[in-house]
Amino acid sequence: MGLGVVSLLDAAFRRAFTSAGLRPGSATIDADTTVHFWAHRSLLRPSSSTAATAATDQKNQPRPVVVLVHGFGPGPTWQWAAQVGPLSRHFDLVVPTLLFFGASRTRAPARSEASQAAAVAALLTGGNGGERHLPGLVPGTGGRTVHVVGASYGGIVAYHLARALLQVQHGGGVAVGKVVVCDSDVTKGPEDDRALAARGGVEEVTELMVPADTKTMRRLTALSFHRPPKYMPECIARDLLRKALEGRREEKIELIKGMTTAGGSQLAPLPLEVLIVWGEFDQIFPLEKAYKVKEKLGEKATVKVFPNSGHLPSQEEPKLFNRVILEFLLQPSSSNGSATS
Predict the structure, then answer these.
(1) Predicted confidence band of residue 170 (pLDDT cuts 50, 70, 90)
(2) Fewer CB within 10 A of the end CB, N or C, for the chain?
(3) Do 104 and 95 meet the contact criterion of CB atoms below 8 Å apart?
């Protein structure tokens, strides 16, 4: 029964993606690295391959792009299913699967969040090889504006992705827009890991964030949600854990150990408008960390607190979350932050 429920959910979430116009794809970034992704079908083909298409492009200006970066747990279709529909009405979406999640993998030794961001940046811009993995991202009339949204670990990657895109935005054919980080402690240090491990009743934070058994997974669920499920049959819990780990528990532990946040000591402000979304009852990264993140990210950063959420407001309050994100992204920028980078 458990396998049936998880499989049905997986199919439903994938259907949400395809209904939003997204299609799966895979890009060979280099000899060592392959990144799986979902992208709007318009991004998968050149947007000005013929004169007729070019004329259409001039009549219908290409839409901005939003990149959705997932965190730990089941893959991106599970984490962004409630967002892709509403966002796709205004933006063309790219949803990468981070390395060591799903079909994305690398033989390179780096395990930092910056290395994750570099792989996604190469997916978007083509990297040094010049191959366009998303040929529709750069229309004949010039590059598109790219906004970056990340949740939890994905928000930490999103910060590095924004910085990487700023460095290549002119040559890479993209203009960096706004950034949203959701319950993402880019200032996390060893003391935060120790405190989280204590809240989870484990010795090491990796035991909690990449659980080896359903008992620990239930602890993680209780910490992640303000209103966690009251009951979950063990058969479903086992299949959810299998879905989250994907047979790559050791690699995911390496990702946590490879993080370089170092208490935010190496963090530089972003010259972009940044929205910091945080659940009031987040027990993974407590609310006070939102304001520390704001201090580090600079004067263009603002904080929005969700009063009825824990660590996952996109899942606990999806309608409010979508409205807040859309209002932020659709509002004209107060200044062109990317030009000041």
Answers:
(1) low
(2) N
(3) no
List, in sequence order, every beta strand (DSSP E) within 137-212.
144-151, 174-182
Residues 4, 10: contact at Cβ < 8 Å? no
Question: What span, in angstroms and rounded, lies between the C-alpha atoms of 89 and 206?
Answer: 38
- Of the candidates 243, 49, 91, 98, the one whose C-alpha atom is nearest the C-alpha of residue 177 is 91
Of 53, 58, 78, 60, nearest to 68 by C-alpha is: 78
What pTM value is reported for the model?
Answer: 0.92
Q: For 109, which DSSP code?
A: S
DSSP string, 255-302: HHHT---GGGTT----SS-EEEEEETT-SSS-THHHHHHHHHH-TTEE
Evaluate whether 76 touches 96 at the Cβ level (below 8 Å): yes
Q: Are 160 and 131 in contact (CB under 8 A)?
A: no
CB 150 within 8 Å of CB 165:
no
**Dihedral sign computed on CA atoms, order 257, 32, 98, 130:** positive
Number of Cβ within 10 Å of residue 298's Cβ equals 16
How confident is the model over 246-284, as pLDDT tens digits? Answer: 999 999 999 999 998 766 667 889 999 999 999 999 999
